[in-house]
Target: Methyltransferase domain-containing protein
Amino acid sequence: MHCYLPPFKSSITPGKKLLREYSGIPEDEIHDHAEAVRRDPFKVAPYHCIGMFQFLDLSLKTMDIYQEVLDRVKHGDKFLDLGCCLGQEIRQLVSDGAPCENTFGSDLYSGFFALGYKLFKDEDRLKTIFIAADAFHETSPLTELAGRMNIVYTGAFFHLFSLEDQEKMALRVLQLLAPKPGSLVIGRQSGSEDAGAFTRSGDTSGRTHFRHNVQSWKELWDRVGKADGSRWSVEANLDAPEFTLIAPTGKSMDLQNKMSAHELRYIIRRL
Ligand SMILES: C[S@@+](CC[C@H](N)C(=O)[O-])C[C@H]1O[C@@H](n2cnc3c(N)ncnc32)[C@H](O)[C@@H]1O
Model:
């Protein structure tokens, strides 16, 4: 599969800071190091976000809830990054003082974990537990964490799936969390003012992806809470579009999809 590989963005300041301060990579070597590592994840799976250096575009720390998350993990709460890919958000927490023993990462592809160690140069010291699993599977190794997590981070994750699969995944996430007030699901994904399903151009598999607005996302968690017998408060907002909304005549469906995409950020808290 062809993937777009834009040049290294000099604007990826938080990721560069992490590589400098946490990984000890000198400033003048960061560009070449990130560029060299970026090509490897495509051998594992060709996600668009990897080509875009999203693994250096740290999101969790930009959320208002970051300080609460950091304090809680410092005091023993267990944090899982579901669909962690290279695990950059875990490294940020650890760099800010969270004990790595309280952090967990999971992804469909174990190959990403080795690349995360290579990117962040921390295989000898990071004690995070990484679990390779399909989170949809009822009997995957991830189920060992059931009921033990306090915070699950899901970045650029739910939007990979159809609405039906998102509901299944949301139920899986609830099962991973401790069944008590304060358990948290946080994250971000592509959203849209008009909620709906879309297909990627060139994708002949028939797979659809569902993009939410605030209301449809809240409704999904209401349904999932009812099915699970739990209650959740959902804070969500759609940020300004990342791309211009000028109608793209003659442009590909992919580009049109991106042009109507906003970022949906959310904090879902068990009551
Ligand atoms: C678009 S990437 C996002 C990576 C990272 N969370 C971020 O915010 O940059 C989505 C990740 O979810 C993983 N993934 C997709 N389907 C999965 C599944 N069924 N179970 C576990 N991980 C999955 C992919 O392998 C990929 O690493």
User: Anything to note?
Assistant: Residues 214-228 form the longest helix (15 residues). The domain at 71-270 is CATH 3.40.50.150 (Rossmann fold).
